Amino acid sequence: MPHASPSPGRPASRALAVPLLGALLAAGCGGDQRPDPVPLSAGYEVPPLEAGPWRLPAEGWPGWSLEPLGSGDGVTAVLDTPLEAWERGPLDGVWVLPLPVPLLRPTDAVLLLDDVEAPRFPLGQALPSPAEVEANRGRWLAAGSQIWLSAPEPPQRAQVRLTLPLGELGPFGWRLRLPQLSANGIPLTMGQPRRIDFAPSAVERELRVATWSAANAEVADGQPVTFRFDVDGREAARFEQAATFVGSRTTRCIEIPAGARSVTLTVDGPPCLAAAIDPWIDVPRARSDDTRPDIVVFLADTLRADMLAAYRDDDPGAGPMPGVDALAARSRVYLGARSNAPWTLPSQASLLTGLPPLGHGAINSGRSLPDALPRLAALLQEAGYRTAAVTEGVYVSADYGLDRGFAVFDERSRSVERTVETALAELRDDDPRPLLLYVQSYRAHAPYHAGPDGPLPDVAARLRPGLGPRLRDAALLDPSLDPRGLDEAGLAGVFRGVVERDWDLYVASAKALDSALAPLWSALDERAVPTFTVFTSDHGEEFGEHDGASHGHALWEELIRIPLFIHGPDIAPGFDPTTVSLLDLTPTIASWAGVEPDPRWVGVPLGGASAGSAAFAWACTSAEHPESRAIVAGVDKWIEWDEPQRLQHFDLELDPNEWAPTPVESPSPTLEALQARQRALSVPPAVAPRRAVLGPEARARLRALGYAADED
């Protein structure tokens, strides 16, 4: 094979040694054992560029160069843009410049006109309206893969400076933060070979790695991105993949001969972002060599428990989700499952950290999980699991710290069908390590919309929940009516119309989710590897039962009662009425993986001797102190309100709609003990939550889902 030699103008990258994590081979240590796997991103730090700026060798890009940013903090790509590079935009007075790579943040781009930095549109603003274009002459903004400039004519001389993301050192080595992807790995800068040294072995091994690249396909003009792997200075493998703006990831396997000591990675082709994702070296193994089970968690965001037949005591074929019902019929169904918060961020953060909402602190849109908190995925990764997440972003994202512990965290706004396709790719990867796969979808979340099967009026009418007294007595009015000028009764009638229309769309959304999940269930049924499957939700949705709508505002059953069932080896199918919560799922998953629970976790493994005493929930969106707290123990439920202050009891067997509360004047010893337990679980974390920093696109996505961004 040919020797690798630096191209003209390319300084060789500094070599960095990666320590071998376990004992070396028999040849080196006198024993008869195989070497431990070597994660190449562990101990790796991106070296600073040794010189610059210099030109990249990409053909057709004479104006594209790189230069250091600070002292090893990153790389700046410099693009000199000729007049002809600008295109007329969709609005009069707007000129558009296509960028060669996607931006992680809009602030990663700087536009210089005649060597002077041009002013931006106000930060946080999305694409401008015609009036905003006129009012902001000479200003610009970055949007995805483009720069928009408000100017009567395109600039004669302009330069764009793009900060290329390199990542940071994390608990498992170098951590990449890329557009729509957060992962363990090594950033690959064009023109900069990355060399990693490691301890030699007396036997052949293999390097398993996923090559990732993102480029503007229109700008790349058909050129592929080329990845080259040199072992001890000799070319060992070369791969090409298409330039795609959303980023493409492909798993590769490269032979590492006995005695090899280094791998050098190089990327060429059109200007792009590129990385080696989750690279590790090991002797060839089969998945069957490790008897630990795979674990797959699917979380259907905003899905009410009564969308599943088991929670309605109904025929599995009579509702909107027959596919999920069929899997539930072969699973252990927890009829008393509750979420610990009535909206996405605190609820899923509790599942992934094992801590109650006030204990982890991510209780509003401006808070991100502190790095120091425990992570379920991190414990499994330390134990040798391949940890991957496929989400639809927004709150379930790196912006909010939910990516920590996952070796690969793929987050993007996409259809549930694309989410399932990505999850299937993770399942079909022939990686020999056991897998923890976390999948989340907003398909049942507002804005609701029907799927290919259209509305289900008969099913929706049969399952329609009872309305609260204010809406029940209101005359049903067309939801499209203009509410201006209507009296209170008229407004209630319009609101009732909106609620009933949205219910029909919500049921149709549940049906569409069910249809999209069919390939996932089929793939899991066909797996030869022992696999635990979890299906659950993070909260429900209100449709007028207590004269309200949506979620996040209260702790009624329609908001915190969730579906939860588990399927897998030695799991007996059937119904379990035990009161449990998502906090109990965290140690359950750890036990399946054979991992000791973190001592800070508060849940109890499902099926354990002490499981099912009570479930606790908190409604808090914008303050340290929750607006309300709930305790559920069997058929008894208590809700404590702050405004006005009151404590109410509900017998869920006699009053499942929670329409007939009983005031609690003097708590019983049992209730006092439960309240003391909830107070103990309400202690804020020792490390303050980080402030979530969101870009315009993330803010727009939050608003589209009905949330207000950056509350604190």
From TrEMBL:
The keyword Hydrolase applies. Its EC number is 3.1.6.6. Residues 293-595 form the Sulfatase N-terminal domain. One of its GO terms (molecular function) is choline-sulfatase activity. Keywords: Hydrolase. It comes from the Bacteria. Belongs to the sulfatase family. This is Choline-sulfatase. The gene is betC_4.
